[in-house]
C-alpha cells in the first residue's frame, strides 16, 4: 500500500531490499524518527540505535513496534558500542548495511545558556564528542568490520551555522563544522575504497526535542521561514530527502553539504523579513536585563 501525504502518493519502493541503521531517534518529534518511518515505507529493513537513557526516557519502543525494527542500545561516543551495533545489525538484518543516518547532537553549553565567550571547556569537549566525533567513530567502526555494502550511503544532519554565525547556536556551530569536515575526509577514503558515499544534510531549523534547547529557537524558525523563498523544510520533508539520498538515484553524490532549507542558505534579506524585523531594532535584553547586541 502507498502512503498518502498532502495529496501525493509517496511510496515508490525506493529502498526495497535495502538494510539500514538509524541513530538518534528519540520521539515522534525527532527527524530520525521520521526518517525511519519513511525508510520502512519505502521497503527498507531497519535497526534503531540510541543510548540506554534515551531508551528509558524516549518512546523508541513505540517506533520499533510500528516499523518492526529491532533496537540496539549504544553510546555513540563509545567506539566499542558502535562496533557492536554494526556487527549485531548485520546479524539481525541478514547482511551488510546499505545506509546509515547520524542524527545525534547535544551541547551542555547551549542547554545551560553559556555564551560563546564564556564556554565551559569540559562541556565543549562533550559537545564535540557527542555531536561530531561520534560520526567519525561511527564511520571508523563500520569500516573496520566492513559493515557497509558497496555503494552504500551515509548521512549526518547539520545546520547552516557551520558556515555562518547565529546568535545562541554557540559551540554547536563548531561541532557542525567538524561534522561536515569528517564527512568530506572520510567520504574520500570510503568512496575510493568501497564506493560508499558520505554526505551531510543542512536542514532548516526544526522543532525537535534537541532544537528546543536552543535559545530563541521559535524566533530563529520564524526568521528562517520568512527569509526562505520556499519556507522552512519540515522534518517530514527532510525524511523524504534522506530517502532519496539513501536510494540508488544518488550514487554519484558524495562529500557534500546538501542544503535542505527552502533556499535560506543563499538569501541575504527577503522583503518579508525586512518588513518584519525593521519594526523593532531595540537592543535585545537577556533574562537578567543585560543588553546583548546579538
UniProtKB/TrEMBL annotation:
Source taxon at top rank: Bacteria
Residues the record lists as binding NAD(+): 24, 30-31, 104, 176
InterPro entries, per database record: Enoyl-ACP_Rdtase_NADH (IPR014358), NAD(P)-bd_dom_sf (IPR036291), SDR_fam (IPR002347)
Keywords recorded for this protein, A-Z: Fatty acid biosynthesis, Fatty acid metabolism, Lipid biosynthesis, Lipid metabolism, NAD, Oxidoreductase
GO biological process, one term: fatty acid biosynthetic process
Pfam families: adh_short_C2
Record-annotated membrane-spanning stretches: none
Protein name per the record: Enoyl-[acyl-carrier-protein] reductase [NADH]
UniProt source species: Segatella buccae ATCC 33574
Amino acid at each position: 500500500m502507498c502512503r498518502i501525504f498532502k495529496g501525493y502518493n509517496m511510496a515508490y519502493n525506493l529502498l526495497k531490499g535495502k538494510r539500514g541503521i538509524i541513530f538518534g531517534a528519540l520521539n515522534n518529534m525527532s527527524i530520525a524518527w521520521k526518517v525511519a518511518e519513511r525508510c520502512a515505507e519505502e521497503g527498507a529493513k531497519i535497526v534503531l540505535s540510541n543510548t540506554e537513557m534515551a531508551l528509558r526516557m524516549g518512546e523508541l519502543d513505540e517506533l520499533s513496534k510500528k516499523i518492526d525494527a529491532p533496537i540496539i542500545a549504544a553510546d555513540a561516543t563509545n567506539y566499542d558500542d558502535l562496533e557492536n551495533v554494526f556487527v549485531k545489525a548485520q546479524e539481525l538484518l541478514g547482511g551488510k548495511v546499505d545506509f546509515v543516518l547520524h542524527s545525534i547532537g547535544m551541547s551542555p553549553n547551549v542547554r545551560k545558556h553559556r555564551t560563546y565567550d564564556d564556554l565551559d571547556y569540559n562541556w565543549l569537549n562533550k559537545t564535540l564528542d557527542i555531536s561530531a566525533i561520534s560520526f567519525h567513530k561511527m564511520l571508523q567502526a563500520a569500516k573496520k568490520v566492513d559493515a557497509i555494502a558497496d555503494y552504500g550511503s551515509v548521512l549526518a544532519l547539520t545546520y547552516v551555522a557551520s558556515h555562518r554565525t547565529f546568535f545562541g547556536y554557540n559551540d554547536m556551530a563548531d561541532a557542525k563544522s567538524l561534522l561536515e569536515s569528517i564527512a568530506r575526509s572520510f567520504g574520500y577514503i570510503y568512496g575510493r575504497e568501497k564506493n560508499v558515499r558520505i554526505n551531510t544534510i543542512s536542514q532548516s531549523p526544526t522543532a525537535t526535542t534537541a532544537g528546543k534547547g536552543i535559545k530563541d529557537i521559535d524566533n530563529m524558525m520564524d526568521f528562517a521561514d520568512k527569509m526562505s523563498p520556499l519556507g522552512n523544510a519540515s522534518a517530514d520533508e527532510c525524511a523524504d530527502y534522506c530517502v532519496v539520498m539513501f536510494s540508488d538515484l544518488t550514487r554519484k553524490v558524495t562529500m557534500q553539504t546538501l542544503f535542505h532549507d527552502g533556499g535560506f542558505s543563499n538569501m541575504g534579506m527577503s522583503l518579508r523579513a525586512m518588513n518584519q524585523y525593521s519594526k523593532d531594532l531595540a537592543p535585545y535584553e537577556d533574562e537578567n536585563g543585560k543588553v546583548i547586541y546579538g
